[in-house]
Amino acid sequence: MIKIATSGYAYKDWIGKFYPEGIKEKDMLSYYSREFPFTEVNSTYYSMPSPYMFYHMLRKTPESFIFVIKAFGGITHQRDLSPETLEKYKKAIKPVIEEKRLGCVLAQFPYSFHNNDENRDFLKRLREAFNEIPLAVEFRTVDWLTLDILKLLRELDMAFVCVDEPRIKGLLPPVVVATSKFGYVRFHGRNSENWYNNREAYERYNYLYTEEELKEWVPKIKELKRKTDTVFVAMNNHFNAQAVINAKQLLKLLSDFTD
Hints:
Layout: E1 2-7, H1 28-32, E2 38-41, H2 43-46, H3 51-59, E3 66-70, H4 73-76, H5 83-98, E4 102-108, H6 117-130, E5 135-138, H7 147-156, E6 158-164, E7 182-187, H8 192-195, H9 211-215, H10 218-227, E8 230-235, H11 242-256
Parallel strand pairs: 1-2, 1-8, 2-3, 3-4, 4-5, 5-6, 6-7, 7-8
């Protein structure tokens, strides 16, 4: 099964391009869930979530709708695995788990998180801390792309997040790797010029993929599907609803593709 959606959904610049004019922010998720099978919840990275938040998100969406929830930034960026932090976070996402609507927790690490003994040990402790909760890990640097690390992720049952991003030295190339029962792909755009040189964070993700660029990924995603039960594909080029445009394009390309 391949699920294609976007990274986040509550963007004001999507109004008039995806959302109808006059829509209220509280109604965006309900509208979004009629078009896509899942979403990445980004707000949980910036601040600790609450069960109350997810209770309302669950009520606004159909039973088939899945949530991928970003790990709290304190966990991935400050390496905080204290009992207090873990208890708060796991208590918050518990309603989603209980309704069997959690795709996974997405642990997105910073560029400073390099492949070394200390950080490999952190991955092991992270797995232990989250018990059987499905985890996907996104690395930012190419030094994680080794056979030993892929073996470790398989042992830990963590999904390696495959990425499409600018071809800049040090970043990960567009490889396809399966290290868990589910696969994960994130499209960040190929805006090399503004990847580091930007005034606003959204400028990095201001990119509209061409059909030819998306076609490059069709056989790769199909390959990942053959190796896993479910593949999550998230478009993160969210500026001006470009993620929506490309998600729908990719869905059609995949439906047209024959092995």
